[in-house]
Amino acid sequence: MNKTILITGGTGYIGSWVTKDLLKKGYTIRLTVRDKSKTEKHQHLLDCEKSSKGILEFWQADLLNTGDFDQAADGCSAIIHIASPFILDIKDAQKELIDPALKGTQNVLNAASKSSTVKRVILTSSVAAVHGDNSDMQEQNLDEFTEEHFNNTSSLEHQPYSYSKVLAEKEAWKLHKAQNQWQLVVINPSFVMGPSLTQSSDSESLKFMFEMLNGKYYMGAPNLMFGYVDVRDVANAHILALENKNAEGRHILAERVISMYGFSQLIKGLYPNKYKLPLMQSPKFMLYMVGWMFGISKKMISRNVNFKIKLNTSKSTEKLGLIYTPLEQTIKDMVTQMQESGLVK
């Protein structure tokens, strides 16, 4: 059996856990990086390699350069394509989000088709490709979001990150349909939380937790609902999708759906009187007045705050066999790591 796997985005928040776990299982991992000389970006994975049965190789490639992944893909049995920007504070959505997500997917999946060896591609998409605004569920008369649904309300101007995930995933399915060499399995995680394998991570998830603990939402957190999932479970889902030959289609991942204020109350239950957590749930009218301070548009508030959502995650447990880490444990492990690294007290 060919145990050589190409991973894009393997030094990132999710990718590092996928790489570490596959190395432990004895795989040979070809990790694509933009600059092999920047060893500080992947030193944590070199350390993982030392204590594992697997082999780690570094290949230089850029999402925007046509053909950059062709050599790295040839000889691999599968590709796990994770690399795609998750940035919320952006200046140019087309350049910073859309181009890398869309062109990167085209580049990597075309490399799979050009190779004579790749039989499976695992794509990291997002629940943002399933729905855009929380109000979508009500407007579409749905009881829940499932893998059948595609986000049709995001655009370059409104929720551009979500729009980038829709475009990239739809392109992946289009490229998959045009060939018969490799299978495509898609992972659609909700908001990913949990400990990081590297201190240098610039993950939005870590930033969110840091801001929550340090009082950014002290005067109030909105009734804004997300699905939450542990980063280690997301990594495990990729590996289950790789190794389970019956895995197919899309998979929504979420341990539970809870509001931002509800999430803060979970932290409060674990760490009473320790952090500057929100005093209350912010009324919607107040958010219209102060939303600009947090970079939140009025449209974002009107279409998302105070709307309930439900995510059907049964396929992830029944078909993939994923067992979820309780969100309380995710929070505990994340806060403990931030305490130990001196980010919070």
Short summary:
Helix content is 39%, strand content 16%. With 345 residues, the chain is an alpha/beta fold. It has one domain (4-339): Rossmann fold.
Topology (SSEs and partners):
Layout: E1 4-8, H1 13-24, E2 28-33, H2 43-50, E3 55-60, H3 70-73, E4 78-81, H4 93-114, E5 120-124, H5 135-139, H6 160-177, E6 183-189, E7 191-193, H7 204-213, E8 221-222, E9 225-230, H8 231-243, E10 249-253, E11 256-259, H9 260-270, E12 281-282, H10 284-290, H11 298-304, H12 314-318, H13 327-340
Helix pairs in contact: 1-2, 1-8, 4-6
Kindly list the characteristics that best describe this protein.
345 residues, 16% strand, 13 helices, 7-stranded parallel beta sheet, alpha/beta, globular, Rossmann fold, 3-stranded mixed beta sheet
Your description of this structure?
With 345 residues, the chain is an alpha/beta fold. It has one domain (4-339): Rossmann fold (3-Layer(aba) Sandwich), CATH 3.40.50.720. The chain contains 13 helices and twelve strands. The strands form three sheets. The protein has a seven-stranded parallel sheet, sandwiched between helices. A three-stranded mixed sheet has the order 7-9-11. β1, α1 (13-24) and β2 form a beta-alpha-beta unit. α1 packs parallel to α2 and α1 (13-24) crosses α8 (231-243). The protein is globular and about 55 Å long.
CATH architecture: 3-Layer(aba) Sandwich
Q: How many helical elements? A: 13
- The structural domain count equals 1
Please identify the oligomeric state: single chain
Estimated share of beta-strand residues = 15-25%
